[in-house]
Amino acid sequence: MAKNKDPKIDQINGEFKAIDNKKGDGEYTVALVGDTWNKYKRKAKNKIVSTMDIKGFRKGKIPAFYIDRYVSQEVVLRKAAESALYSAYMFAMNQKTELKPFDMEKTTPKIEDISDDKVVYSFVFSLRPAVKLGKYKNLGIEHKVTKATNKNIEDEVRKVFRRFANFEKSKETAANDDIIVIDFEGKIGGKPFAGNSAKQFEVEIGSGKMLEDFEKQLIGLKEGQNKKFKVTFPEDYHALALQNATAEFNVKVNEVRKIKYPQFNDKLVTETKIPNVKTMNELKTHLRDNLDKKNKEEADGDFIADIMEAIMDGSKFTISPKLLMEETKNSINRFKENLKLKNLKIEDYLKRENVQYEVLENEIMDDIEAKFQIEMTFIEIAKQENISIGEEDIKEFYELVKIQNPAARREQVDMQIKKDPTIKTKLQNEKIVKHLKKWNIKKVEKS
């Protein structure tokens, strides 16, 4: 919005009102009246006069009655309203009100009313996303930690020794760890989809390279057999159009290759070159420790995810639809730019993924809304519990940085934090996560 030499804001004769629609958007209405509005009308009329060319009169010296004859009152009022817009905007921004815009610079002003007596503008804007936080302590959520079983360890041992194994063509039925070579074709509702078929396709059963349910359907098949089965794609599948969709597959088995492991012994263990592991017993202990650690990390991740889901389900969020749409457009534009780097257009991507633009847009908007909800949840918990980042937290962060970069100096870390405020936000959120775990711990071990 361009600046001009309007009267000082404190000299404006205006009326102001702030409106909260309780749905995430706010509105300022400003009416310029009296002397202020008259000044803008005179300015508008003079500007019009300066551009008129009427025979017999010099520019700028045309009598008023001629102006009124050639220029309608509506044109004068519109010109005056355009000229007064910046003053009305600044007048609104200088008012003392609890209703604070989150993105006023993106608002589109609108003239609600215009007459010889006044001009009324409206400025609709997004309010900062807000949350009425629900319960976040003692939620009764179980922290399910799974301990590694002997079978789990045996499976891990086979994975370690898999690179020493051979595969032999077999007439036997396919089992876990075997390779099965298939022709397959899939359809959803009787229609093909992207990547729905292949010939001489190799599947390592149990590798997880295909959908788990698809691989399980191949167990027990042998060369020459055919099988029809249905598989439902997961809700987080990478191709949006296939999420939650059920496909019917027709599979023909061309070949089964059985895996043949060498003898598991201490000599083979040394060939793995795993540090500080020389024997089968040491290998199993090493794998058990790693698996327990992995299970603990996964349990921690699931635990905090369940906590956040429970908190957000019990909370009420107010997020401006206008803000969500704006952020969605920005995200899609960034996505388009990334596609350009790969010499792809958005139309090509949508066709390849067999997905409509509206589906993509809704998926992105849902993600953005979820991010706002998580952000507001953390902000509100920090506010209610008075959680902030202090000297001890920064010192702890510095020690972690030194582990990765022993040459790092404290002043460098301080400067990095000063330049990037998201570091403090990340540290604060990590601190809140620790509190959430402590407030909601109900440990359950599964073996």
Task: Reconstruct the topology from this structure.
Blueprint: E1 14-20, E2 25-33, H1 34-51, H2 64-70, H3 73-93, E3 110-114, E4 118-126, E5 130-132, E6 143-146, H4 150-161, E7 166-170, E8 179-187, E9 197-204, H5 212-218, E10 226-232, E11 246-260, H6 266-272, H7 280-313, E12 316-318, H8 321-341, H9 346-353, H10 357-385, H11 391-404, H12 410-419, H13 422-440, E13 443-446
Parallel strand pairs: 6-13
Antiparallel strand pairs: 1-2, 2-4, 3-4, 5-12, 7-11, 8-9, 8-11, 10-11
**Percentage of residues in helical conformation:** 40-55%
Instruction: Please state the average pLDDT score.
Output: 90
Cα separation of the termini = 65 Å
Spell out the CATH superfamily of the largest domain: Trigger factor, C-terminal domain
How would you describe the overall organization of this protein?
The chain is an alpha+beta fold and 447 residues long. The protein has 3 domains: 9-128, Trigger factor ribosome-binding domain (Alpha-Beta Plaits, 2-Layer Sandwich); 166-260, Chitinase A, domain 3 (Roll), CATH 3.10.50.40; 292-446, Trigger factor, C-terminal domain (Trigger factor, domain 2, Orthogonal Bundle). Helices cover 46% and strands 20% of the residues. The protein has 13 helices and 13 strands. It has helices spanning 34-51, 64-70, 73-93, 150-161, 212-218, 266-272, 280-313, 321-341, 346-353, 357-385, 391-404, 410-419, 422-440, and strands spanning 14-20, 25-33, 110-114, 118-126, 130-132, 143-146, 166-170, 179-187, 197-204, 226-232, 246-260, 316-318, 443-446. Strands 7, 8, 9, 10 and 11 form a 5-stranded antiparallel beta sheet that branches. The chain has a 4-stranded antiparallel beta sheet with strand order 1-2-4-3. α1 packs across α3 (73-93) and α4 (150-161) crosses α7. The longest helix is centred in the middle third of the chain and has 34 residues, at 280-313. The radius of gyration is 34 Å and the shape is elongated. It starts with 13 loop residues before the first strand and ends with a strand. The mean pLDDT is 90.
